[in-house]
Amino acid sequence: MEVFAVTIFMSLAFAVLFAVLFLGERSQRKQRSIEQDALLPLDDGAPARPAPFPPISEPFHPTP
Fold it and tell me: What is the four-CA torsion angle of 14, 16, 19, 22, rounded to 10 degrees?
């Protein structure tokens, strides 16, 4: 039974640790994250615009 108590205690400890770290990361919105800094070399400075849709053509129906 001691194993269950230790398992539940560790699970709760990890859940609280995750919640604290998650909320701490969310509160630092003003600073850039590591992922954003890693993508900076790929940034060309121009905002991405979606490509226009191609014109819709009539479906091909072979004549008998």
Answer: -60
